[in-house]
């Protein structure tokens, strides 16, 4: 039995015993096969990132540090038709903040941000090539998860957006420092300050996306890319990645401070309440 097969079986068992969301369904699962780790997101309705999802991602991050010694690539993708990820679970965020006094809510928010930053920083700095295979809604925290990866492969229906400004916030999962690292400031300001979305073609034109493929083809394309990566020396690729993709730790810490400062404002609570009370099927859409 190969190492990959052994790891696959053990990891699948561990995933099934990890945390679950309020419905009892798992938020994520992962497996290692033929040197490629695949992390699948599957929390309905659109992979919103809440406390249960974060706990499972932390479990994954722990395994990632062990699996990466036997892997050359990581693919992150969604199994839901609705999209890659709509971002933070704003309903959970709002209800938790309402159940606490202001100081406790701020401490809880900072703890949540620091935990998810640790996960995304591990993905960002992993000594293997990471690929986000995205489709549909790739907003807010979901966009930030994709930005932690080395490559983004998008199907033609993917849309990218930072809608946080309508809530009186900035992105809080590391998106702005990573976007500044990868793209020109004009693009960063456009996404951050207007809140409008970019489609996959526009995202490729500005250098955000490395490949645009047909609808439903992003995972297949990511797997083909991962297979190509396996032909090269792993240590050389890891060295190249460290050289061209430094993790902006100082700016990431500053982002957490700014987010928490804004989160304390009454306007943010009003924006969250409006979102929670919305009857729209997908209130995160522009």
Describe this structure in words.
The chain has 286 residues and is of the alpha/beta class. It has a single domain, classed as 2-enoyl-CoA Hydratase, Chain A, domain 1. The chain contains twelve helices and ten strands. A six-stranded mixed sheet has the order 1-2-3-5-7-10, sandwiched between helices. The chain has a four-stranded mixed sheet with strand order 4-6-8-9. β2, α2 (51-67) and β3 form a beta-alpha-beta unit. α3 (90-98) packs across α12 (266-277). The chain is globular. Mean pLDDT is 88; it is low at 1-23.
Strand order of the largest sheet: 1-2-3-5-7-10
Average pLDDT number: 88
How many structural domains? 1
- How many individual helices? 12
Can you tell me the CATH topology?
2-enoyl-CoA Hydratase, Chain A, domain 1
CATH class: Alpha Beta
> Which sequence of SSEs, written as H and E, runs from N to C?
HEEHEEHHEEHEEHHEHEHHHH
Spell out the CATH superfamily.
2-enoyl-CoA Hydratase, Chain A, domain 1
Q: Level of helix content?
A: 40-55%
Question: Could you tell me how far the N terminus lies from the C terminus, measured between alpha carbons in angstroms?
Answer: 50 Å
C-alpha geometry? globular
Short description:
The chain is an alpha/beta fold.
Topology:
Blueprint (H helix, E strand, L loop, with lengths): L2 H14 L11 E6 L2 E6 L9 H17 L5 E6 L4 E3 L4 H9 L3 H24 L3 E6 L2 E3 H8 L3 E5 L3 E3 L13 H8 L2 H10 L3 E2 H6 L5 E3 L4 H12 L4 H11 L4 H15 L2 H12 L9
Parallel strand pairs: 2-3, 3-5, 4-6, 5-7, 6-8, 7-10
Antiparallel strand pairs: 1-2, 8-9
Helix pairs in contact: 2-4, 3-4, 3-12, 4-11, 5-6
């Amino acid at each position: 039995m190969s190492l990959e097969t052994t790891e696959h079986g053990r990891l699948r068992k561990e995933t099934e015993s990890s945390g679950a969301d309020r419905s009892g369904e798992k938020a994520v699962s992962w497996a290692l096969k033929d040197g490629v780790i695949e992390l699948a997101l599957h929390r309905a309705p659109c992979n919103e990132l809440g406390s249960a999802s974060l706990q499972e991602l932390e479990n994954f991050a722990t395994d990632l540090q062990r699996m990466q010694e036997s892997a050359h690539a990581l693919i992150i993708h969604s199994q839901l038709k609705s999209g890659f990820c709509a971002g933070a679970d704003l309903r959970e965020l709002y209800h938790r903040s309402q159940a606490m006094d202001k100081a406790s809510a701020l401490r809880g928010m900072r703890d949540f941000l620091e935990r998810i930053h640790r996960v995304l920083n591990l993905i960002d700095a992993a000594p293997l090539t990471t690929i986000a295979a995205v489709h549909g809604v790739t907003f807010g925290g979901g966009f930030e998860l994709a930005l932690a990866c080395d490559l983004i492969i998008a199907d033609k229906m993917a849309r990218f957006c930072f809608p946080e400004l309508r809530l009186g916030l900035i992105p809080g999962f590391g998106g702005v420092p990573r976007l500044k690292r990868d793209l020109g400031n004009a693009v960063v300001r456009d996404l951050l300050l207007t809140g409008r979305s970019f489609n996959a073609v526009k995202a490729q034109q500005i250098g955000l996306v490395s490949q645009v493929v047909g609808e439903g083809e992003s995972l297949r394309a990511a797997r083909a890319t991962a297979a190509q990566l396996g032909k090269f020396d792993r240590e050389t690729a890891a060295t190249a990645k460290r050289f061209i993709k430094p993790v902006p730790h100082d700016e990431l810490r500053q982002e957490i401070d700014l987010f928490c400062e804004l989160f304390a404002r009454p306007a943010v609570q009003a924006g969250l309440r409006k979102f929670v009370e919305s009857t729209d099927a997908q209130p995160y859409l522009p």
